[in-house]
Specification:
- The chain is mostly helical.
- The protein contains nine helices and no strands.
- It has helices spanning 14-29, 36-43, 47-53, 57-81, 89-106, 108-112, 129-143, 151-173, 182-198.
- Helix 1 crosses helix 4 (57-81), helix 5 runs antiparallel to helix 9 and helix 7 (129-143) packs across helix 8 (151-173).
- The N and C termini lie far apart (60 Å).
């Protein structure tokens, strides 16, 4: 029997608690599982209290997507931190791609919240997966002795890499390659990464 969660939350933090529960629901059943009423039930509050913080289900889902994107960015950053600080930029970019893929593989339901992508970062932001990728691509440009910091070229290269990694991640989690054994999925990722990086032009 379903019961309302009576565990108290700290006064004034209901919004944060609802986002936490929303992420929990997304991890259990994907974006379709994120509902305001169920979130309110788990938080132990009335639906009307939930609506004071989120006017509709889409606004809650957007907050969940933002948190999922942060977690994805952290996975990328952790993977990059595992390689030497003075490693070639190519190795760092490939490591970031592996971190992206492992997040998709290990947190498939939550990754589905990002299946249609996420918002591009503000110009000076460093807090999104795409912003991290732009920064790493800047290292590739310097390594390739590209003298002029052409933002358009960096953006184009980052989109190409993002498309490749996101595409193989979707294929291997919810697409045509979802039933392929995991070792083979990782082999396909490596081919995808090598091909994408090799094909970049500045």
């Amino acid at each position: 029997m379903n019961t309302v969660n009576t565990k108290p939350y700290h006064h004034g933090n209901l919004r944060e608690e609802m986002v936490r529960i929303g992420v929990e629901l997304a991890a259990e059943g994907g974006p379709e599982a994120v509902g305001l009423r169920e979130t309110a039930r788990r938080a132990g509050v009335s639906p009307s209290a939930a609506y004071r913080h989120f006017p509709g289900q889409n606004s809650l889902l957007e907050a969940v997507r933002h948190t999922a994107a942060d977690a994805l960015g952290q996975s990328m950053q952790h993977a990059v931190s595992e390689v030497a600080a003075d490693a070639p930029a190519t190795e760092q970019v490939i490591a970031a791609g592996r971190g992206y893929f492992e997040f998709a593989l290990n947190r498939q339901m939550l990754f589905r919240c990002l299946a249609s992508g996420f918002e591009l970062p503000e110009e000076d932001s460093r807090d999104s997966p795409f912003a991290r990728l732009l920064e790493l691509v800047g290292g590739l440009k310097r390594e390739a002795s590209a003298v002029v910091d052409d933002h358009a070229a960096r953006f184009d290269a980052a989109v190409a890499l993002w498309s490749a990694v996101h595409g193989i991640s979707v294929l291997c989690t919810s697409g045509a390659l979802r039933d392929v054994p995991q070792p083979r999925k990782r082999e396909l990722l490596e081919v995808t990464l090598a091909t994408a990086v090799r094909g970049l032009r500045f």
